[in-house]
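[audit] Reproducing an earlier prediction to check determinism. Same input, same settings, fresh worker. If the tokens differ from the archived copy the diff job will pick it up downstream; this log only records the rerun itself.
[audit] input (181 residues):
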Amino acid sequence: MRWDALFADMEAQLASARDAVQESEVSERLRTDFAGMELSGRLQSQMGRPLKVDLGLPGSFQGVLSHVGRGWLVLEGGGRSSVIALAHTVFIAGMDRFSTSGAPVPRLGLASALRGLSRDRASVRVYPAGQPPAAALDGSVDRVGKDFFELSLIPRGEARRQENVRGVYVVPLQSVAVVSS
């Protein structure tokens, strides 16, 4: 009878040790998988969530995450869409702790998102990285190159017509924090 209790206790200890090793292996595998995840992949699992993105001097932008590209995301809210460059993002709030392992890495870059705005001749406000909101430029994206775009300066609220164009700026993509339309 005492032998039965001894063996049962030993089997319980062995099962407990096996469970602890298995739990440790699972935790380590999750850490390893997470360590290889890129921010754009992490953001893919947050589609449809309300987020707040802080960009330092240009300010914070809030909205529902609707698109994620290579190095950018789009927030929809408050009657506007904001294309935000991840390179100038200070922090993102509102994400849950869940991630999709193996989420496809987006291939479309910031230039692709701006080509859509150019095609639609949408009125935009461009917030330069590292500048206060007062430095934002209003206008229309005319043409988009590989690493730059041309912005026709148009007073806010006016239509994109030749007589309303106050000048044309060439803007390197690396200097853009946000383009809102």
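[audit] rerun output stored. Observation attached for the diff report: The mean pLDDT is 86.
[audit] end
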